[in-house]
Amino acid sequence: MMNLKFDTLAVHAGAEPDVATGAVAPPIHLSTTFVHNPQGGQPGAFSYQRDDNPTQQRLESALAALEGGTCALAYASGMAAIAAVLDHLQRGERVVLPQDCYVGLRAFASEVLPGRGVEVVAIDTTDLDAVRSACTQGLALLWVESPSNPCLRVSDIAELARIAHAHGALCVCDNTFATPVLQRPLQLGADIVMHSTTKYFGGHSDVLGGALVFARDDARHAAIRQRRLLSGAILSPFSAWLTLRGCRSLPARMALHCANARQLATALAATPAVARVHYPGLAEHPGHALAERQMRDFGAMLSIELQGGYDAAANAVRKVRVFTNATSLGGCESLIEHRAAAEGEHSQSPPGLLRLSVGLEDAGDLIADLQQALAGA
Ligand code: PLP
After folding, report:
1. Environment class of 361 (CB within 10 Å of its CB; exposed 0-12, middle 13-18, buried 19+)
2. Rounded distance between C-alpha atoms, residue 73 and residue 239, angstroms
3. Pick the catalytic residue: 58, 106, 199, 262?
4. Catalytic choice (75, 102, 200, 279)
5. How does pLDDT run across 199-213, given as a tens digit for each residue?
């Protein structure tokens, strides 16, 4: 096999023409069941859709190729993929998580794990000394999210993987914000990459999904795969197909997403109503130098804190016209969200923080929209 460049893999991985028909675009196999041979076994490799199915298999091979992993498992959502990893923690083990991370990860860890006797420690993973002190005996898993949601903190994935491995623990990295176009955590030493494919892989805000990509096809992968079979948290073939289609344009979309975000971040940094811009592409961002080393570009997620706090943020999301006030990210359309309002009373987000998913519209239109929404904020 030729050593293909990333953009070529994005177009061709899991895209082999259909053997039965010669169709160039992959077919969607909706069948839930596959015939048995009279003497038992299957003529093909499949038995039942929940165990495995051809469309999901294509997506998994594409995800593994793009992340540089050995194998991958697709899930019904990003949360199902997160739960699949956390479900494997045993009584007496310890998991270390970032303080700034996807709110669903924090909720699963705090609501489910302590009842199972798993100790949860949340720390600032950008502070390696804090990580070293939190990684004590019993450490089974160090979770990394970089850049993080919603404050865009950048953590040193290679160093965190080294610390985890020194304790015989796993390093799992949520690569949803960066995508493998910008960052490849397995090459930096992580053991498992987790994705909400709902975001940039799907790319059009119309398909939910999640994935785990494994550095090694080992006993852990087999155990997590077996658990997926038992719990049934698989991705539907249609969702797998849509996500696979998203892979083809991922590098091209990410290039435009990132270029737009850079322009927007620069404009927002010079906007009086804005107290802080959290975007790793800005030279003054505390994680800028590290992001330059471990990422190919800085992504298209950014957040801003307004001088006027909670009320100013609530007001701004009511005034946008090109941005849409909605949760989620990674689609073609730009989204804005007042995280504290969306997360409710237990929110840990700064009260005046607006999270932006920068889309593929004209950058000038996006800047003008935010400037009118923030005028007088
Ligand atoms: N990880 C990150 C960084 C996210 O932003 C999200 C959702 O917003 C998830 C995981 C969860 O993914 P899903 O919504 O597909 O369950």
Report:
1. middle
2. 14
3. 199
4. 102
5. 999 999 999 999 999
